[in-house]
From TrEMBL:
Segments of skewed composition (Basic and acidic residues): 379-392
Native organism taxonomy: Bacteria, Bacillati, Actinomycetota, Actinomycetes, Propionibacteriales
Start and end residues of each Probable transposase IS891/IS1136/IS1341 domain: 164-273
NCBIfam families, per the entry: guided_TnpB (NF040570)
Top-rank taxon: Bacteria
The keyword Glycosyltransferase appears for this protein: no
Protein's name according to its UniProt entry: Transposase
Family named by the database record: In the C-terminal section; belongs to the transposase 35 family.
Residue ranges of the region described as Disordered: 379-398
């Protein structure tokens, strides 16, 4: 996907929001019809039948007829594909789209090729019933059969062209690198490099905390609350841009330098899950401490370092060259002698083997184990799990 920043005029912004509302309304109608359909009514309506229903609705309601028909039909086509992906088991169940969160629509067909270059820095795209909208030429415009217009929560408009870039060729040197992802160090390489994802400066963090407190004191539905939410969204969007830029540059650099890239096989969705409440059996209706605040801070650290985004972009830029390794005991195993023990990890940053005395950065040592592509069991050393249960003693004769 190729994303470009759009700069529509005020009248164009209002027209784009109107088209987003139409597309979201049609999508939500399709979700409601699909979720309320029963078996006695036969098979659920497909894309063709829903298009006929859309034509009848456009004839009955003038406000819906004022929108672009191909945008509304494309929303139905996207929903039909989403349902097929859900039944195929590759995607989640299609859900409702909300205002201020899901603002966008897609255009497919000859309209997608109407892009004109204005000068060295600017170009324009022709959107039906809206006209030519300018966007910034941050890179070469690829040929695409469809494009999507999106608006993020901070109010920025983007043009996303559905064009899959060519994968980055391997250098052909046979080099292998291991990548260990962490919170303090975003990515530690087996070569000894420590890469850190940029974090918001102290001023932005203080302003974000101040705005969050103002948001908690503001009245729901008030104008002040909308302004505070917009200011928070701008700060979050700025942090997301820094994280995305670092991810793109890091993944491109790794794909160009190494033939094989090995990472830990982590389930980030489960790692960032909230801890379950612990009921207090002695006092029904109350709960025991479950360290949820500490877990929330760890979850923010994991998501702020872009663990999943880095691996996803590596798989897209270097297809077939990214291998996932079992992360079991990679941080407790010595990369020199293979001895595995919890005492090897002195602290979060220092690794000192209790068997051979090897000392190194803990993240780099784990990255070397990941680059080897073997868990501790593959080194013919299985960690011994000592049971605390006592063996039953034979009864002594009286």
């Amino acid at each position: 996907m190729s994303r470009f920043r759009m700069y529509p005029a005020p009248a164009q912004r209002a027209a784009l929001l109107e088209q987003c509302r139409h597309a979201r309304y049609v999508w939500n109608l399709a979700v409601e019809q699909w979720s309320m359909w029963t078996r006695d009514q036969g098979p659920t309506p497909g894309y063709a039948k829903q298009c006929r229903q859309l034509t009848e609705a456009r004839a009955a309601f003038s406000w819906l007829r004022a929108g672009v028909q191909i945008i509304q039909q494309q929303a139905l086509r996207d929903f039909d594909q989403a349902v097929k992906n859900f039944y195929r088991g590759t995607h989640q169940r299609p859900t409702w789209r909300r205002a201020e969160i899901h603002e966008g629509f897609r255009i497919v067909g000859p309209e997608a090729s109407k892009v004109v270059k204005l000068n060295r820095k600017w170009a324009a795209v022709n959107i039906p019933k809206i006209g030519w909208v300018r966007f910034r030429l941050s890179r070469a415009v690829p040929e695409a059969k469809s494009y999507r217009i999106k608006r993020d929560r901070s109010g920025r408009w983007h043009l996303v062209l559905a064009a899959i870039p060519e994968p980055i060729p391997a250098p052909g040197t046979g080099t292998v690198v291991g990548v260990d992802r962490g919170v303090t160090v975003s990515a530690a390489l087996s070569t000894g490099e420590l890469l850190k994802c940029p974090v918001p400066p102290a001023g932005e963090q203080a302003r974000l905390k101040h705005l969050q407190r103002r948001l908690a004191r503001s009245r729901p539905g008030s104008k002040r609350r909308q302004l505070v939410k917009a200011a928070i969204a701008k700060l979050c969007a700025r942090a997301g841009d820094r994280r995305g830029d670092w991810t793109e540059k890091t993944s491109t650099d790794l794909a160009r330098r190494f033939d094989v890239i090995r990472v830990e096989d982590l389930r980030i969705a489960q790692l960032t899950r909230r801890p379950r409440p612990k009921p207090n059996l002695e006092q029904p209706g109350t709960y025991l401490p479950n360290r949820r605040r500490a877990k929330a801070g760890l979850n923010r650290g994991i998501l702020a370092n872009g663990w999943g985004m880095l691996v996803r972009r590596l798989e897209q830029k270097a297809p077939g060259r990214v291998e996932k390794v079992n992360p079991a005991y990679t941080s407790q195993t010595c990369a020199v002698c293979g001895h595995c023990a919890p005492g090897n990890r002195e602290s979060q940053a220092v690794f000192r083997c209790v068997a051979c005395g090897h000392q190194a950065n803990a993240d780099v040592n784990a990255a070397v184990n990941i680059a080897a592509g073997r868990a501790v069991s593959a080194r013919r050393e299985t960690p011994v799990r000592v049971s605390l249960k006592r063996e039953p003693q034979p009864a002594t004769p009286a």
